[in-house]
Amino acid sequence: MTRIDFTTRRFFTPEALGAGGHIEPGRAEANHVLNVLRMGDGDPLLLFNGRDGEWRATVQREGRKKATFVLGEQTRVQPELPTLRLLFAPLKQARLEYMIQKAVEMGAGHLQPVMTAYTQMRKVNIERMETHVVEAAQQCGVLALPQVYDVLSMQDAVADCGTVIFCDEMEAGTGGALDILRDLTITAPLAVLIGPEGGFSPEEREWLHAQSHVHAIPLGPRILRADTAAVAALALVQAARGDWI
Questions:
Q1: What one-character DSSP code corresponds to residue 34?
Q2: Is 130 strand, coil or helix?
Q3: Are residues 121 and 158 in the same domain?
């Protein structure tokens, strides 16, 4: 595994990356690099675009408000996008932002907002969620940018998955989550389903328990907020059946 360089500043660019290439950042990004971060001519940085891996580059200053990034060698090749899915009911903005950031860090590759009976936020800004994905990837060294999808009903999203881990607060005391996960026969794609702040309705719980590919796990004796539950569930799945093994 290639060691991630966390000492050099990383930046996302939508442009194609390759040896000897030149990237011209937009005015806002150039201003941030030159006047906020005070990077000078020849200073190193890392660039990624979610497609071509990570590349070392240097700043070529062209005045107070303009610069060019000159590409050198590739530092990390582009990995495959993780197949793990997070299905979640949209939350209020601050908590949703936290959930998105942590899902990126925890190795989710597909972020699917779902509507449930008790979902409070009925409008979802997909573009804003994609911005949070990029920001989180830039900060934590992720190269494969998780995909964000348009909203589906919970039932349609669940039906499109191979195996779904259903975080059910009513399952407390029925067995350890790790034991349940280790004993499961997993069919890809594997997904984690997190409900809204008000939980799932009785009808939704009944429907979920009736699906043969959906499996309930407890998250301990405490009632967790939805954003906290997402982090806890993803950690359990990665530890029992994911890329932490």
A1: I
A2: helix
A3: yes
